[in-house]
Amino acid sequence: MEDPVVILDAVSASYEGERIATLHDVTMHVREAERVAIVGPNGAGKTTLLEVINGLLPFTAGEVCVFGRPVARDGHRLRARIAYMAQELFFPPSTPFLVRDVVMAALYAQMGPLRWPSRDDRTRVNGAMAMVGISMLAGRPIGRLSGGQQRKVLLARALAQGSRLLLLDEPTANLDPDAKLEVARIVREVERELAATALVVSHEGGPLLDDAERLVRIEAGRITHDGQMAELRGDLIATGV
Amino acid sequence: MFGLPWHIVLPTLLGSLLAGVLCSVMGTLVVRMNLSSLGFAMSHAAFAGAALGLMLSFAEPLWLAIAFSIATAAVLGPLADLSRMNTDTVVGAIFPLTMALGLVFLNKAPSSGIGSGALALLWGSVLGITMGQVTTLAAVLAAVVLILIAFGKEFFALLLDRKLAQASGINTRAVLYAVLFMVAVVVAVSMRVTGGLLIYALMILPASAAFQWAYDIKKIFVLAPALGIVASLGGFLLSFGMDLPIGSSIALCAAAIFLLSTAISPKRRRVG
Questions:
Q1: Measured between alpha carbons, how far is B260 from B227 in angstroms, rounded to an integer?
Q2: Domain-embedded: residue B262
Q3: Would the N or C end of chain B have less CB density within 10 A of its end CB?
């Protein structure tokens, strides 16, 4: 059996100044090409879990490995291979970057220092934008796009990056029903194209969670449910998820 | 030209233009990163260093100005990280310290240094610029351009969004510290032109004006120094034509460019 893509082993984490840990003794393994829905009430620790996995938040106990490498040691290099869609990220209208440059910026860390984008890099970026259906927006300023379009740009970054691990934090928050379906379709396409593993955080349900094979529920920083979606769905509906 | 000998006019003109380009290029980084008070704090750190040079009767206080600016840059980044406060807030906290030190040093300076030397530090004395100082400005400009070309994509990633850059594997802390050090050196070497009090104008105004014209950061990096050149050249001509201090003249031109750009910016236009 292949090694898990993500391993959390007895992980605890807290934000600076917090007396109470935001994550307590969390253990979970995520297999390749698995889609895991992470649900729970506000403040349960869902975003913290994603930030610990990509090394943006240092953990205080336990061990986190991604692609078999410890996040605590190899954070920068690993983050170049992880696509992370932050919950609150929205580009204001004055943002002075064009869509194609925002997508290209996802590749910068992979390129390493003293190298500018090559023709291959541009081909990757154009291909990713075409797959997500935003080629016609390439020359538009990112801040002039709608929330749904901006989400698509972030998904194009993930695709261009070739990331085999997607960490999506509320990817369909504040989107209308059509845009939610469209984002869900693109995520499915990215997963299929890259055989990618996806951890999707949401507190509102929707098509992205419906497609998940596995569902993890977090409450007060602890995993309270972890199992196959089909098995858990009935229990969770009964408990109010 | 204006009856002045070229051996004075040429270094003056070159110094103004080089400072205009340098400050507005760094200003583009500073404005986009919401570190507008950085230029202000660095100029006062440089002012404190140069004032110490006057107090100690150094022949060339520029090196102490650079040393003070770099020391401030070295303190700012780690202090912002340690305090978990916005870098701009920490800059605001450092500024009174450097200003107070500058005034203390000036107060203790020999009386001969206080007159022209102190005024040159505060308001600039571009007419006193030597070709050696012009060469220093040109060398710093070459270094800044080389750094921006070599690490441009890391700077661009940070300018797009710091958290996104960090999440995609960029070492954002190293890039931020690099910006602080570059601003420190640029402010210190450019201070001779506009003076410590007005260098902020040359750093912030052309860059802010450039942001009014374009949505593409690459174009802004070209437009900002172009506007910096216009401000410097305009200030130079205004200064000689109306017998005004050159630092103030450059600042007035830069402010006019900013106000005009804001007023007629294509970003304000509405369709229909």
A1: 12
A2: yes
A3: C
Confirm whether A103 is domain-assigned: yes
Residue B174 near chain A (CB below 8 Å): no
Percentage of the residues of chain B whose pLDDT score is greater than 70? 90
Residue A1 lies in a domain: no
B35 inside domain: yes
Range of the domain at A60: 6-238
Closest among A185, A159, A173 to A87, alpha carbons compared: A173
Q: Tokens 């008070």 label which residue?
A: B37
The pLDDT value recorded for residue B118 is 59
CATH number at residue B87: 1.10.3470.10
A77 is a domain residue: yes
* Contact (CB<8Å) B169/A105: no
User: How distant is the Cα of A108 from the closest Cα of chain B, in angstroms?
Assistant: 6
Nearest chain A Cα to B146, which residue?
A: A114
How close is the nearest chain A Cα to the Cα of B65, in Å? Answer: 31
Interface membership of A109 toward B (CB under 8 Å) = yes
Q: The domain spanning residue A176 has which CATH number?
A: 3.40.50.300
Nearest CA in chain B to A15: B84
Q: What phi and psi values does residue B56 have, to the nearest 5 degrees? A: -90, 5
Total domains in the fold of chain B = 1
d(CA A77, CA A55): 10
For B168-178, what is each residue's pLDDT tens digit?
Answer: 999 999 999 99
8 Å CB contact between B236 and B246: yes
Q: What is the pTM (predicted TM-score) of this model?
A: 0.86
Structure ipTM: 0.86
